[in-house]
Every structure is written in C-alpha cells, then in structure tokens.
Amino acid sequence: MRVGCVLERELSGSRCLASCYIALSLQASYLTGFLSYWLLGQAVPAGSHVRLNLQTGAREVKLQDEDKFRSNLKGLKKGKRLDINTNTYTSQDLKSALAKFKEGAERENSKEDKERQAKVKRLFRPIEELKKDFEELNVVIETDMQIMVRLINKFNSSSSSLEEKVAALFDLEYYVHQMDNAQDLLSFGGLQVVINGLNSTEPLVKEYAAFALGAAFSSNPKVQVEAVEGGALQKLLVILATEQPLTAKKKVLFALCSLLRHFPYAQQQFLKLGGLQVLRSLVQEKGTEVLAVRVVTLLYDLVTEKMFAEEEAELTRETSPEKLQQYRQVHLLPGLREQGWCEITAHLLALPEHDAREKVLQTLGALLATCRDHYRQDPQLSRTLVSLQAEYQALAALELREGEDEGYFRELLGAINSLLTELR
C-alpha cells in the first residue's frame, strides 16, 4: 500500500490539515476500515484505534465515523481528497499529562491508605501486644485437641473428684459435637475411656458419659463403628435394663438413638442383643412416659429409614449396594410384631400431650402394614381413635375460624381419619 500525503498549515498555526491521497484498492480499504499515516508525529483523532501493520511497517488508524468513511470513499472514487482535522499534541505533552495524572493518583491512594491503617489501628491491637498480655495473665491458648486431651486426663485421673469428672465430661460434650473433634477423640484413645465410664458405679458419671458419647456418635460413621467394636452398645443396653435414675436413662437413650440411626450394622447388633425387649420393659415402667415417646420416635425413625433406603435403591436401580444389603439384614418389623409392639404403640395413643400423640400416630402409620390385623382386633384402639377424632375436629374448627387453613390440629385430624379409613 502506498499513500502520498501533503501537509498544509493554516494561517493561525493551531491546526494541521492532512490531505491523503490513497493509491490502493478501494475495496481493501473498505473491508479493513483503516487508513495509513506516513508522517511521524502527526496527530490522530481522539479515541481512534491505531495499529502497526507488521507486513508493511506502516502505522494505521481506524476512522470512528464509519458512515463518514464510506462517504469519503465514494468521494475518492471521484478523485476528491480525504480530510482529517485533528488537534495537535506532541509526545512531550502526552508524557507530561500522564505523569501529572499518575502523581495525583499516588497522592490520593497514599492518603486513603494512611486513613485506613489508622482506622484499623484504632479498632484492633497488634498480635504481639495480645500475646504479651496473655503471658502476663498466665493464659495458655490451646487447640481443641489439646483441650480434649486435658479433659480426658482429668476424667480418667484417680485423684479427680466426682464433681471434676462430671465437669470434664460436660465440657467434653461441647467439643465432640464437631465431627472432626469426635474423630480426634477416637484417634488418641479418648473415646474408649468415655465408653468405659459407662461402667462406673456413680449414676452421674454414667449419665454424663452417655451425654458425651451421644454427641460424638451423632452422624459420625467412623466413631459409630469404633463404638460398637468397643462395646458401647452392650453397656448402654445394660444401663437401660437396670434400675437407674430417670435422668441417667434419658441420656443413655439419647446415646443409643445416636448410635443406631443411619447405622444398619449397629441395628443388627441391637436386635441380636435383645434391644427390643429392653425397650419394651423400659416403656412399661411407671413414670417413664417421657422415655416411651422417645422410644416410639426411635422405632419410627428406624422403620422409615429402612423404607427410604429401599425406595432410593429402587429409583436408582441399584440392587446390591453394601448399605442396602445391610439394611435388608435388619429384620426390625417382624421383631416388633413378635415383641408385642403393635399393642404397646396403640396404647400409647392415650397419652395426653399433643406432641406425644403426633409421634404415636406417625409410628402407627409406619407399622400399619405389619400390625393391621392386630389394630383391627383392638377395640380400645378404635375407641381411642374415635374419641381423638371428635376432639381434633373441634380444635381444627377453632383453627379454621382463626384463619389457619393448614393448622397443627388439622394435620393430626388428617392422620386420625387416615388410620380409621385403613382399619375399616
């Protein structure tokens, strides 16, 4: 490409007029949209796109107004000149302007940084000062692992008093709620120490050892496996089967529930060790209604847990995953029927609390396929259901008048109506 340029200066000297004659294919210029400037230092319109042609070494500028460019090209075909009027700036002017801009930005940033640093210093103290203060107060910063080791040592020490041992277990329960901490407790042997605490002759030690274990077992498969291998399941069942304070049995039942949920292997061992018989005796004791509701809730969870595992396997078309095979070896429903849980659960519906009734109704529904014949032959259950139906119809109507279309009592009424329909 060759371009001939003639530079004409206006009388005022403030503007330059570059008249460029383009001696190249008009079609090529139209496609690229670039014009080549031969005069070094010549001003370019502000905002223009400039490039270096690596093939020719020429500097090229793209015109901003494409419509004007096309119009000028038409004029070129007729032999007219292409005029570009621009303000002239020397390279030194541009360098000076950029330098001033940079200096201003640096001064502004420096001022903002100083203000931010001053604000941070007002809000926070340096770590060196904090460490010095802690040293003066004889305060040692410990990790969770170090704290748990110290608590286990305190609990396991023969020189510790009963109050100190109970306090250590109480504090330990707070830390083992976290899955990683519970596994760390296992790693240094602390879990087995707490399990052995279930053998204590002190009811308070049994109670708070079970409390800490229940927190460690919860949704933590690795700890659950080691607990079963360490004999925790047998020890928990022994406490529930013997005479113990109600508060201790509450904590032990909590630990048992945490150990059994979502752990089919532990459920198998529970059935083999006579766990259903132990729970049956527990709910039939006088004054254990609170425990009875918790036991019924546990049974409901175990029954539905197995059902959901089988439904999930059917949906995903997995016929032999390991966990499903373990669930299929848990023969819970036949055991419940043989141990008389159909009758026990039905009689618990007479409890006065709405929350207890809700949990019993859920369990009755879960056991319906297994206990249907027994329910139909139980006149007391039928009378109880009819009585509750009338009671909750009135309560549901009251909810409806207060503007609650889907209230709590309406849900209970729906569960009762569903059971009555199934048993007709």
Automatic annotation (TrEMBL):
Its main location: endoplasmic reticulum. Pfam families: Fes1. It is found in: Endoplasmic reticulum lumen. Residues 108-185 form the Nucleotide exchange factor Fes1 domain. Required for protein translocation and folding in the endoplasmic reticulum (ER). Functions as a nucleotide exchange factor for the ER lumenal chaperone HSPA5. It comes from Sus scrofa. This is Nucleotide exchange factor SIL1. Interacts with HSPA5. Gene3D superfamilies: Leucine-rich Repeat Variant (1.25.10.10). Keywords: Endoplasmic reticulum, Glycoprotein, Protein transport, Signal, Translocation, Transport. It comes from the Eukaryota. One of its GO terms (biological process) is protein transport. InterPro entries: ARM-like (IPR011989), ARM-type_fold (IPR016024), Hsp70_NEF-Inhibitors (IPR050693), Nucleotide_exch_fac_Fes1 (IPR013918). Belongs to the SIL1 family. SUPFAM superfamilies: ARM repeat. GO terms for cellular component: endoplasmic reticulum lumen.
